[in-house]
Amino acid sequence: ESEKIKKIIRGEKIEGVENITAQKEYNVRFYDIDTNRHVNNAVYLDWVVDSLDAEFLIAHEPRKISIKFNKEIRYGEPVVSAYEMSEEGITKHRISSGDDVSCEAKITWETAVSE
C-alpha cells in the first residue's frame, strides 16, 4: 500500500571525461565480485578514488559525489579508471572495460582542514 509515484526523480547528469588527466589499470579480483558475479558497486568508488594521487587526497575532502552505474563488470576483466580534473576543484571519472563505460562519477572537492 505504498504511495503511487508519477515521476521518478533522476540523479544529476554526469558529463563524460573529455581530457584525461591520468588513468590507472586494474584487474577484477575474486573478492571484488558480489553474489551475482558482478563487481560490487563499492569497488567502483574505490577505483575512482584510488586513481587520484595521495598528495591530492591528503589535501582535499569530497564535498559532493555523484555516481552512475552503466554496465556491470565481471571477474577477470581488465578495467581502466580515468579521470579529468578541473581548476574548480571538480573531478570527473570514467571506469571502463574494453569499449564499455561501466561507471561515471563526478566529485566536488574542498580543501581539507589542517589540524
Strand order of the largest sheet: 1-3-4-5-2
Helix content: 10-25%
Largest sheet: 5 strands, antiparallel
- Average predicted local confidence, pLDDT: 92
Total of helices: 2
Count all strands and give the number: 5
Pattern of helices and strands: EHHEEEE
Tell me the span between the first and last alpha carbons: 51 Å
Strand content: 35-45%
Looking at the structure, what is the overall shape? globular
Which regions contain 5 or more consecutive residues with pLDDT less than 50?
Answer: none
Alpha carbon gyration radius: 16 Å
Quickly give the structural class: mainly beta
From the structure above, extract its key features.
mainly beta, about 15% helix, about 120 residues, 5-stranded antiparallel sheet, globular, 2 helices
Q: How would you summarize what this structure contains?
A:
This protein is mostly beta strands and about 120 residues long. It is built from two helices and five strands.
Structure description:
It is built from 2 helices and 5 strands, in the order βααββββ. It has helices spanning 41-50, 54-59; strands spanning 22-27, 60-69, 78-85, 90-97, 100-111. The chain is mainly beta and 115 residues long. Strands 1-3-4-5-2 form a 5-stranded antiparallel β-sheet.
Q: Could you outline the blueprint of secondary structure elements for this entry?
A:
Layout: E1 22-27, H1 41-50, H2 54-59, E2 60-69, E3 78-85, E4 90-97, E5 100-111
Antiparallel strand pairs: 1-3, 2-5, 3-4, 4-5
